[in-house]
Amino acid sequence: MSNTLLEAFERQSHACATLGAPFSAAVLERAGRAIIPGGIVSHLLADWSGVPADRLVRDAVALRLLASLHYLVLSGQAPALAACYPPAAEDPEQAWVTAEQVLIDHAGPVAAILTHEPQTNEVRRSACLLGGFLTIEREAGLPLRCFELGASAGLNSLWDAFRYEIGGTIWGDPASSVIVSSRWEGAAPSLDRDLIVAERHACDRRPIDIRQTADATRLLSYCWAEQRERMERLQAAVALGQSGSLVVEAENAARFVQRAAPKTGFATVVFHSVVWQYILPVEQAQILATLESHAAAATADAPFFWLRMELNETARQFELRLWSGPGHDRLLAVVHPHGEYAVWQ
């Protein structure tokens, strides 16, 4: 047994339970106990055996396995598993008994999904990002040029097409089928401002093409099965994306960000959410160097910003931060990882 794999599964199981996904937590707990020599789980995760637990958590290995099971349910390939999975049922004990055989029978497709870092594209995170864009507009007073890194299917790049319900206030398209609710506390930005997105660009090293059935299903599989509100919101966002024209470019983030140089008459924003942990350190360094170059070239008529919603591993909290150059990095809010709340600073 890999003790580090077991620890990673236990930590992810605890996280799921904390974030309101008890069924998923129970399945992962049982999957962790099944990491034994010669077992199907150990076979599928052989490449991660002995990797430090912190790295396994950062690479979301447990979530990859969980998503593979959900994918087989959603795609109709595992009807016996679907019978004990939400929404049909929530029986984690029987689900895992069935899942072990399903993993054996579908080892090929599961192995393929395991090669992908989770591409959740949780659209509720846009409720946090919105506060950042409002802050930028208040300070710059210019139309936005938006460049999203690690965009997955690009759904959060469509953030201004959603209907937001924050407290008693509605912002965005009141007729949108994508309804995003969130709780804001503290010194929150004003929601009485309109935003103009003049340019919209997005990249991912392996983008999800939601116009392809298999890709759309894989995107949905990263959503925890018992969280129906999240699933319904994601399905609505997928439908919105399928009807639009945004193309997520298959490109390395370090190369893509070079195109986000400041432009007169616009506020240029590079943004991302829960992506940084999946970018290798060497590429992170390249991105940072380019961001500093863009910030040095910025002017009052061509400002530049870096907006990100990411895990602060030291503080053990998710944060929304806004950067406009060396020495100008602000904590805007402490946020829920799925966007349920933002505590503004």
Give an overview in words.
The chain has an 11-stranded mixed sheet, with helices on both faces. It folds into 2 domains: 3-114, no CATH class; 123-344, no CATH class. Helices cover 40% and strands 19% of the residues. It is of the alpha/beta class. The chain starts with a helix and ends with a strand. The longest helix has 17 residues, at 281-297. Helix 2 packs across helix 7 (92-105) and helix 5 packs across helix 10 (213-221). The relative contact order is 0.13. The chain contains 13 helices and 11 strands. This is DUF2332 domain-containing protein. InterPro entries: UCP012608.
Structural descriptors:
alpha/beta; 13 helices; 11 strands; 19% strand; DUF2332 domain-containing protein; UCP012608
* Helix share, percent: 40-55%
Strand order within the widest beta sheet: 3-2-4-11-10-9-8-7-1-5-6
Low-pLDDT ranges: none
Order of helices and strands: HHHHHHHHHEEEEEHHEHEHEEEE
Please give the largest β-sheet.
11 strands, mixed
Radius of gyration: 20 Å
How many β-strands, per DSSP? 11
Return the average pLDDT rounded to an integer. Answer: 95
| Whole-number count of domains | 2
SSE-based structural type: alpha/beta
